[in-house]
Description:
Elements: E1 8-12, H1 17-28, E2 32-37, H2 40-50, E3 54-58, H3 64-78, E4 83-86, H4 102-130, E5 133-138, H5 151-171, E6 176-183, H6 191-195, H7 200-208, H8 218-229, E7 240-243
Parallel strand pairs: 1-2, 1-4, 2-3, 4-5, 5-6, 6-7
Amino acid sequence: MTRLKDKVAIITGAASGFGEGMARRFAEEGAQVVVADLNGEGAERVARNIGETAVPVTADVSKKSGTDEMVGAALAKFGRIDVMVNNAGFTHRNGDMLKVDEQTFDLITAVNMKAIYHSTLAVVPLMEKQGGGVIINTASTAGLRPRPGLTWYNASKGWVITATKSMAVELAPKKIRVNCLCPVAGETGMLELFMGEDTPERRALFRASVPLGRLSTPLDIANAALWLASDEAEFITGVALEVDGGRCI
């Protein structure tokens, strides 16, 4: 299938979890993909499994230098950027908000928030010259329906949702669509941190809070991102799309 034929996408946090799912799914639909992650080994593995339409980049997206590296790699390899997926994320362990140290707080804001600032400054001028583009930010149900124990993470994802909507309005005249995804907790490396501890009992409690009765999967999120990135969603911008099995109802 070719829903993203001839499109070039950068996906951050693509060495595992939701990002890996997006990279694989986008490539299946014809996209050329920059697999960006702080975990360079993981990025290389994902890109190798996809094949020659993918290039791995080791990048710390919380820093401008990391953003410049992945944007440079996209342009050097593929010559353009059509889709920017800001998916990299970080969280603190579920618990008392007063016990989250400043270093952890700073890392949450740098990865979840400032990285979007850096990538926007880098890709918007390129997209404008090309005649348009798509930006997708990974937010969370935590930004829409926050729960105790993840306060600072929740707040960062609320920021992502507000930034997405404001970006969408401001960039619409440039034909750049901006949307965000709000996944419920899924089978990723961050699940244990969200739950506080990974036990069958905790998982059962999480599943019970989702009307459709399960956690999200990378494929769930990848399919939603694929639609937002495709021309099928050409009239969709400023949306915070809940991919949550009904969790936010």
